[in-house]
Amino acid sequence: MPDNTVAIWILCASFIVLLILRFPVALVLALSSLVTLGYLQMPIVVVAQQTLQGINAFSLLAIPFFIMTGQLLGAGGLANRIVDFANVFVGRLPGGLSIVNSVACMFFGNLSGSAVADTSAIGSVMIPVMKNKGYSAEYAVGVTISSAIQGVVVPPSHNLILYSIVATGVVGGLSVGKLFMAGIVPGLLLLLTLCIVGVIISIRRNYPKGDPIDRRRIPAIIFHGFLSLTPAFFILGSIIGGLATATEAGALAVVYSFCLGFFGYRELKPKHLWPVLVRTFRTVLMVFFLIGTSAAFGYTMTILRLPDIITQGFLEISRTPWVILLMINILLLILGGPMDMAPMIVILTPILLPVCVKLGMSPIQFGLVLIFNAGMGLLTPPVGTVLFVGCAIGKVSVNAGTKAMMPFFLAMMIVLFLITYYPPFTMWLPSFVK
Questions:
Q1: Residue 203 region, left (φ>0) first, then alpha (ψ -120 to 50), else beta?
Q2: Which pLDDT score, from 0 to 100, does residue 301 have?
Q3: CB of 49 within 8 A of CB of 23?
Q4: For a tag on the chain, would you pick the N or C end, based on fewer CB atoms within 10 A?
């Protein structure tokens, strides 16, 4: 007779061993589920059924639409216009180019929802400019990769949509509009702390301000800057206002972004469309396969009552909420190194969300805490996707990039502490959404 305790050990051991052997995470989820269900003498076809059921949701269509929107905007030359737009307002402040970098990353991240895309687009523009103006290459990389993390928090982020889909399977319906609103204050708070750190370092190192801008160009720069940001306002406004679902808003945003880049600015050429489609489909296939296999993995955990056991385990260690939340944050920061963002969301949400709900934390607040931690993990080895991309663009070593990023990383820790222990930072704006 199969024993549940043995099955749990088989599930956890196979998961850890396969991860250590560097198997793709989606394959790890599928194989560990297969092995465990085989031990439980359940039909193996259950894994396939749960995988298909996991991706059989209309709301999932929002993810490819959002990803394609970011790809179209990136190929349409919006990065340069956003940098110029930010430079108008903050370029002449002390450490101006550092602030411009952070502000531009927030604006572009607002459009792409991807920290890697943010680093690639803004980094390709700002890192060479900062180096030419006397900023060290390491510092330019450090401020760029740190600022790019804003893209995973500020709306509209496909990571928030992914979390809402996974969390809905745990706690019921979760409003995407409320999640988007919840990301605004943490995003602005992160921008403020990054700018403060950047100004302090720039003043201490005597880095220059940005170049003055011809006043005759300012109206055109502001106009094109606002025009470049309209897709994000379009998506956010239509969802929050109840005019469209996330899927409908994403589909309309794809059409609008294509028209803006192809007919408006005419920088999106026919030759760009195939690479845009290829990058979009690659990302979507990876995310959907991950979502499907995570559904099978979640089903296996559910029949073993593993989330309940983990919840009780945390509560046995301590009944004090702030202690448990501290342990969860430490766990997420540790796992953020070896795990990418999407796997963290789909694997850890069913495990940790019930614990936080038991403590009285809103699923919306937990979502921001989880995604913020996962974003910070993009800066740390051994995965550290954003770190590696930034270092490649700036042509600096990973060690040098990591060292330059650390002051900003510590600033992020402060923001993480605030959104974890002070709910109004995440819950105030969502309270205005029905």
A1: alpha
A2: 81
A3: no
A4: N
In a domain, 411, yes or no: yes
First to last CA, the chain: 50
130 plus 236 within the same structural domain: yes
- Residue 15 has, within 13 A of its CA and on its CB side, a CA count of 19
320 in a domain, yes or no?
A: yes
Same domain, 89 and 187: yes
144 lies in some domain = yes
The total of structural domains in the chain comes to 2
One domain for residues 31 and 66? no
Rounded to whole angstroms, the Cα distance separating 339 from 95 reads 34
DSSP H helices, 21-114, are 25-39, 45-55, 62-75, 78-90, 96-112
Please tell me the number of Cα atoms within 13 Å of 404 on its side-chain side. 26
Give the integer Cα–Cα distance in Å for 228 and 79. Answer: 9
How many other CB atoms are found less than 10 A from the CB of residue 171?
A: 14
Is 50 part of a structural domain of the chain?
A: no
- Based on the fold, state whether residues 340 and 382 are members of the same structural domain: yes
Tokens of 11: 């599930």
Q: How far apart are CA 185 and CA 162, in angstroms?
A: 20
Mean pLDDT per 10-residue interval, the chain, length 434 residues:
82 85 82 88 82 76 80 75 78 77 81 76 80 86 90 83 84 82 91 90 82 78 80 76 79 84 82 86 82 81 78 77 88 78 83 87 92 88 78 86 91 93 89 75
Residue with tokens 């026919």: 270
For residues 355, 358, 362 and 367, what is the CA-based torsion angle, rounded to 10 degrees? Answer: 10
Per-position DSSP letters for 114-156, written without gaps between them: -HHHHHHHHHHHHHHHHHHTT--HHHHHHHHHHHHGGGGTSSS
User: Cα separations (Å) of 291 from 72, 113, 165, 278?
Assistant: 24, 18, 9, 20
Q: Judge contact between 56 and 288, C-beta under 8 A.
A: no
